Target: Carrier domain-containing protein
Amino acid sequence: MVLKDIKVSLQSMGKDLDDFDLPKLNIDVGLESRVRELLEEYSIVVEEEHLFESDSLNSNQRGAYDDILRHAG
Model:
């Protein structure tokens, strides 16, 4: 994934991974890895009682929770 990010950055500057003798990017492996991660995430079972746990946070915890969600999305 880092190599992919480097490739995108280099392309924005008109360069390529080959210009810097970096390894070839194997897109299939990256895609397969991302698909596997997504499938794992979708398979997580969340109990209904956990969906409302944020309602019980104190004000400091709620502030941190809100900051994390704001930056995650």
